[in-house]
Amino acid sequence: MTKGPLALPVRLRRALYGALWAAPMPAWQLVFFAAPFALLTALSFWSVRNFRLVPDVSTAAWDWLLTTDYVRDTLLRTLAYAGGAAVLVTLLAFPAALAIAFVLRPRARAAVLALLVVPFFTSYLVRVYSWQTFLADNGIVNAVLRPLGLEVAGMLNSPFAMMVGYATLCLPLVVILQSMSLLAIDRTLIHAAHNLRCGPLRTVGAVIVPAARPGIVVGAVFAFILCFGDFVTPLYLGGGKHPTLAILIADTVKAGQQWPRAAVVALVMMAVLLTTALAALSFAYRRRGS
Amino acid sequence: MDTKPLVELDGVSKRYGAVAAVDGLDLTIDAGEFVAIMGPSGCGKTTTIKMLAGLETPSAGEIRLAGRRVNDLPVWERDTPLVWQSLALFPFLTVLENVEFGLRMRGVDRTGRRRRALSWLDRLGLAEFAGRNVADLSGGQRQRVALARSLVTEPPVLLLDEPLSALDAHLSVRMQAELKRLQREIGITFVYITHSHSEAFTMADRVVIMNKGRVEQIGAPKDIFLRPASRFVARFLGGNNLFAGRVARMERDGAVVTTADGSFRVARAAAAGVRVGDAVDLNVRSDRISLTQQTGWSGNEVHCRLVSEEFVGALVNLHLETAAGTEIVAQLQQRDLEMLDLSPGTGFVASWHPEDGHLIVPEAPQPLALAAE
Fold this sequence. Notes:
The complex is a heterodimer. Chain A is built from 14 helices and 2 strands; from the N terminus they run H-H-E-E-H-H-H-H-H-H-H-H-H-H-H-H.
């Protein structure tokens, strides 16, 4: 091969080749994350006059955030719901994951894991709507309970209904994540624990949970992130009586075009999620010993 | 030290479907003994140790620990810690916490278990690593942590499943000496699984050689080395030359065995218990074979040609072939070769003393061959 004037040194050609393959990801991040993020930050300092956005350097939206009680209450409520849902879903998922990883035979395990993907075939919105027909005062659950004299009123539009909605959103995913991390445990560690007089039940706490900690924490973080930003469950199962930050954003935009306030809430949500995720991951991968 | 049997395997078998991984194993191990179970892959040695630990349940037979039947005792209720081939240290615990694990499971209080774990770490030269993560230790150090974790509860018997196989050769040799010394000091029975001759022969008081789920030979390392009981053992240990033949006649000072390569004399001690007509394998260790380039010596002699030469440090293995096609290996000192012409195809006379021959009597007699004679 002749060397043309455009021939580049091998090392440079390799670097360019690598850069070409790596390019889509940073490009995507730039266009769909960094740019909107910059826009959102700028927007949070704009002002609204006569229901119209005006570019500005105003701290009005940030003042509103820091001084308005219901904003703070909503943030705390959202944290409590998302945190509660993450804990609840993690606890509900664990026995299922344990059974999938350690009780089922390989073929049954593959079938169950495949079934866990099926819920994602239906829209989450549709699944939440169908919970309304189950949980309403005259819904399916009470229709079954009424003859037994166990009728429960006010299930819908309650924190209970919201937990049901959050579980609908993320339980299958968390079961899958936990199962994968339990399956990745070296079985010899479990046998070694038994060999050192650690009975089966005790092995769960002494070996299985610590060995699978990264997967369990990552599952909980996913649940927290999904529930923290969710709009559907608080609206359709919480009935708007328990607004979360996602609802707050929608409301501020609808009521008077308060885009800067919505931007401020969105930025706070991002900050909370990033902090929580990083803290949780550093806990998940924390190493013992110096 | 009392010498009543500590571990007894009584006709123990383990079948997986139609395949018997262990087939009618009888073995008695005394307290304080160091027993190595050795054999090729799939010989049943790992299944045997797993049955002792309770990780596998025998299909037949009885396992007794200190006189008590343990066949149906779950793993976590036995007192038979195992040092795993992969070590199986808990990565989420520190070195000290790993060693404490067994004591914690027995409900030993915090100060008690810390003291005992630290004293074992100290004994194995690991005291300064107590607070470390196990992943930061070298292979040899992790090996010692695994030992300390199993020994901290001072069990009557320690099971070891090829614990040195992950170490490099140099470190393995050092650990062999350490293990043997440790076992003598603490007097705990060691049952040691290995496929390595050097590990078994260096450390064990008794060696069990297994093949296809059955015991081929049990004995002191020296006895097995000098007098392999079967063709399999002779081949498995290596360095043995086998001549299949038949006892032709008994003489006052021994016997004469006829083989395809000629008739050879064996001393009386080796010929004890055989009768004229018995099918036997004459076995001569490769280091007992002398090579000359002329006949005339009065011992057992066979003509052969040099095939190849294998350099093993101070020693050299010469691979030869007789006219009848029998392969012979002669192990010589490097300096003995200086007098010999070593071009391939060179003719030699291989010879050995009648005292160096050893007879292996096949277990099952061969009536067909007898009829043909």
